[in-house]
Amino acid sequence: MWRRLPVLLAATLLAAVPLTSPASTAPSAEAESTADSEQYDWRNAQIGGGGFVPGIVFNRTEPGLVYARTDIGGAYRRDSGTDGRWVPLLDWVGQDNWGYNGVASLATDPVNPDRVYAAVGMYTNSWDPNNGAILRSKDRGESWKITELPFKLGGNMPGRGMGERLAIDPNDNSVLYLGTPSGNGLWRSTDHGKTWSEVGNFPNPGNYVADPSDTTGLYSDNQGVTWVAFDRGSGSSGSPTSDIYVGVADKQNTIYRSTDAGATWERVPNQPTGHLAHKAVIDSRNGYLYMATSDTGGPYDGSSGDVWKLDTETGAWTRISPVPSTSSDNYYGYSGLTIDRQNPDTLMVATQVSWYPDVILFRSTDGGQTWSRIWDWDAYPNRELNYEMDISSVPWLTFGTEQPAPPETSPKLGWMTESVEIDPFDSDHMLYGTGATIYGTDNLTEWDEGNKITIEPRVAGLEETAVFDLISPPGGAPVLSALGDLGGFRHERLDEVPDSIYENPVFTSTTSMDYAGTSPDTIVRVGEFDKSSRPDDSRVAFSHDGGKSWFQNTEPSGVTGGGTVAAAADGSGFVWSPEGTGVHYTTDQGASWQSASGIPSGARVESDRVDPNKFYGFHRGTFYVSTDGGATFTASSASELPSGSGYFKAVPGRAGEIWLTGEGGLWHSTDSGESFSRISGVAGSDNIGFGKSAPGSDYPAMYSIATVDGVTGVFRSDDAGQSWTRINDDQHQYGNIGDAITGDPDVYGRVYLGTNGRGVIYADPSN
User: Is pLDDT of 713 > 70?
Assistant: First the structure.
């Protein structure tokens, strides 16, 4: 999935910092007073998933206790008491440690179900400035303590679907193991995850990288030690488990074991070579280890693989692949391996990856001797489906497409299906993650009777989208979102999942939106998609009914990405600053485009909210103004503005009034950007938006992600920036925020906040 690169300053965390500790921030020398605070109620505008779920982990001691990990959206616990809704556990993560929302692995304690652990850190390269950490909780994730590690983890790196890298000894739960990337080897804790040390005699830190030529460090990192599995039957309660198996990203040496509780290690004899072990599951009752392999680390690729069965007593390996790698019909690897703990001869595995026509789930009830498929070929191009899908709870999973020609279907059964899990207490209950949601079924064993199983989204409460922009037009839908991977939604109700993403055209990602200040039903959006597969579609679209329907026209030559866009106050014209070419404007709704002069490529553009002839731009410390509908821009004489490409907004209902955010402060102009004054007490700001005025005020309420009087948070001002009130708290920080914030023009006090992984958040005063 596409993810933007976050750029934030980070502060070093101390080991074992409690959840209630405030975010670490740099106090401002300009602060003159202490900002007030107000209690707000924070919740998600319902979307229902939207991102990759690489791991689902059931507790094997307590029925109904299950966790999910995401690559950029934190961790969740499923609450069996609220119709199976997922409860977010890491909303306390702040801007100083935003990478903790990348969960590389998760483990739930099989001895004490109240304990849960998460290995966190988003990137192993320079994109994440912090090291990884182990989060540990004694109350199922309601509160956490932190142990910082001396290396990075990669919850959003290639190979993130392999695992689980973090494992708890089922016989002695004080012992945990962690497989790490980047050549850092295998690590162990003997005090419930509080302290960690490297297992010095573990022989292989891995050597597989996805792309050695990559210079960013994203694809050239060693994917390392990828999973740990304990053979519970080799030990007894209260003593460390003797037999431990470890997967390594090394195609010639992919599995190791210890038979003396980690004192010594050996390469498992006679193991298969040529592939990477994505998953392993141990059947301690019958003495088998099952292993699913692929030729890559995934999650986007995989073109060959096998499923193997190891007799842990005799050491004999048996290839039990549904379609072996030697077959011409094998064009995928395998992942998503699970067994039925009630009937351990029953196992399932998923393809890694079968993009076309769909993922394949395989099921065996005889230990892998024979397999059945969730779909099979009829007379090509038709397929016989052994399942029914009901997506009524998340109808947008069709992704705005009509029913495609066979053999494809809409919705798809899945993709990037790295985690398939049968409930250890209920053979009929199965969950699996995809690139967009969690699917599940409650009649899984009907498969074995030759009947169709019913598959439904099981994602309520789990929100995982990256938000690039938000608008709240007065008198219209509460909020419209610009999202990565999904395009975005017109959110007619905040408590209901939208029916469909934006269509005509569908964007893979929407990068910017705007509405006309005095004609708010006129809306424009710009975004990105694979132009080579849809050459007749444009990366800009227009609406005249508040985003209910859309139409497209042309785009300027040279466009490669969405960039930013602005609508004239009366909707008579539009200015677009796309990627790949310079700033352009149109007065005929995209039927033709002309180049704007006087403004550099890549400038952020906005419109005056009252004067239809005025547009503004900002780029690398210089502010630009157009008074002729975007045809020509002139650089302002304003100086000492932030050097980056900060966000700025024009004030609704006030011609020529602008607020500009950036590192080091917050700036205000009342003369169309000819001059700016810096606001005292604000040491830095990421973004700003406006909403309905407070009672008795004629100035819009202002909302900003900022550092005020040494505290970083979400703030509201009801008096044009003279004073600020913090409206979030340390439990509602949402990691990397800053791309999108706006108030509601119809509801005083309501704010909409865009996150990079936790979806669209909104909040109202508690009173």
Answer: yes
Give 658 or 35, the one with higher predicted confidence: 658
CA 42, 45, 49, 51 torsion: positive or negative? negative
At 1 the pLDDT is: 41
pLDDT for 401 beyond 90: no
Q: How far apart are CA 416 and CA 439, in angstroms?
A: 13
CA–CA separation, 176 vs 174, rounded Å?
7
Residue 238 CB-density burial (10 A; 0-12 exposed, 13-18 middle, 19+ buried): exposed
Asked if residue 5 has pLDDT above 50, the reply is: no
Q: Which of 57, 1, 16, 40 has the alpha carbon at shortest distance from 748? A: 40
Phi, psi of 99 (to 5 degrees): -65, -15
Which residue in 96, 169, 469, 485 is the catalytic one?
485
Supply the pLDDT for residue 645: 74
Q: Terminal CA-to-CA distance of the chain, rounded, Å? A: 39
Q: What is the mean pLDDT of residues 494-510?
A: 97
The CA distances from residue 235 to 259, 284, 339, in Å, are: 10, 10, 21
Element (H, E) at 251: none
Collapse the DSSP code of 95 into the 3-class scheme (helix H, G, I; strand E, B; otherwise coil) and give the result: helix
In the block, residue with structure tokens 């001059």: 675
For residue 34, what pLDDT is reported? 52
Distances (CA, A) of 193 to 119, 184, 263: 10, 17, 19
Decide if pLDDT at 396 tops 70. Answer: yes
Task: Output b/e per residue, 422-454; b: 16+ Cβ within 10 A.
Answer: bbbbbbbbbbbbbbbbbbbbeebbbbeeeeebe
Report pLDDT for 403: 87
- SS3 state at 397: helix
Annotation says 71 is catalytic: yes
Q: Buried b / exposed e across 464-500, counting CB within 10 Å, b at 16+?
A: bbbbbbbbbbeebbbbbbbbbbbbbbbbbebeebbee
What DSSP letter does each residue of 697-735 carry, written as one string? Answer: --S-EEEEEEEETTEEEEEEESSTTSS-EE---TT---S
Judge whether 686 counts as a catalytic residue: no
Assessment of whether the complete model's pTM goes beyond 0.90: yes
- Rounded Cα distance between 247 and 683, Å, is 48
Q: Domains in the chain, start-ordered, CATH in brackets?
A: 467-765 (2.130.10.10)
Contact by Cβ (8 Å): 757, 72: yes
d(CA 415, CA 590): 35
pLDDT at residue 399 tops 70: yes
pLDDT at 279 over 70: yes
Which of the four pLDDT bands, split at 50, 70 and 90, describes residue 26? Answer: very low
